[in-house]
Amino acid sequence: MPTIRNARGIDIVASKDGQVVNIQVKTNSYGKIRYPMSKGDEEWSDDLYYVCVTLKGEKERPDFYILPSKLVAEYIRETHKIFVHSEPRRRKTNETSAEREKRRKESNIRQFPNYLGDRIPEFKDFSINNHKDQWGILEKSEKT
């Protein structure tokens, strides 16, 4: 089924036996396992899933990571809170801590996963690799 216009954040709507699953696709290339997200991705629903795709060489099969939106939303929301108040990894300007925090707080940009996840107890053991090719999660959601 093609993407429905005006369906915010939904790239694919899949249905089977009357059950519907909404899928948001995030793509990255060159073998990187980090995906651009936005503040809007901090919202979740039980029937929304992310399929994160890592493109590789022209003749190589991409990697697919299938995740429930609740996990992604909580991860980026909590890591962004830490990011707002953390010291920069590289100082680029002479901005004050208050200016940096304000700029970061107002930013719409998020990244999943990111280097701050291990600072949060509930995500300390998170590995996106545990979600590689876990297509069955989409069918399990139909039964709940």
Please render the helix and strand layout as text:
Layout: E1 12-16, E2 19-28, E3 35-38, E4 48-54, E5 63-68, H1 69-85, H2 97-106, E6 109-112, H3 136-142
Parallel strand pairs: 2-4
Antiparallel strand pairs: 1-2, 3-6, 4-5
Structural descriptors:
about 25% strand, 4-stranded mixed sheet, two-stranded antiparallel sheet, about 140 residues, disordered N terminus, alpha+beta
What does this structure look like?
The protein is of the alpha+beta class. It has one domain (12-136). 24% of the residues lie in helices and 25% in strands. It has three helices and six strands. The chain has helices at 69-85, 97-106, 136-142; strands at residues 12-16, 19-28, 35-38, 48-54, 63-68, 109-112. The strands form two sheets. The protein has a four-stranded mixed beta sheet. Strand 1 and strand 2 form a beta hairpin. Helix 1 runs antiparallel to helix 2. The chain is globular, with a radius of gyration of 17 Å. It starts with 11 loop residues before the first strand and ends with a helix. 17% of the residues are buried. The model is unreliable at 1-7 (pLDDT under 50).
**Form type:** globular
Q: Tell me the structural class.
A: alpha+beta
Sheet-strand content, in percent, reads 25-35%
Q: Please tally the helical runs, counting DSSP H or I stretches of 4 or more residues.
A: 3
Quick one: how many beta strands? 6
Order of SSEs? EEEEEHHEH
Q: Give the strand order, joined by hyphens, for the main sheet.
A: 1-2-4-5
Q: For the CA atoms, what is the radius of gyration? A: 17 Å
Which parts are unreliable, with pLDDT below 50 for 5 consecutive residues or more? 1-7
Question: How far apart are the termini?
Answer: 22 Å
**What is the domain tally?**
1
Calculate the mean pLDDT score and round it.
Answer: 86
**Helical amount among residues, as a percent range?**
10-25%
Report the sheet with the most strands, covering strand number, pairing sense and barrel closure. 4 strands, mixed
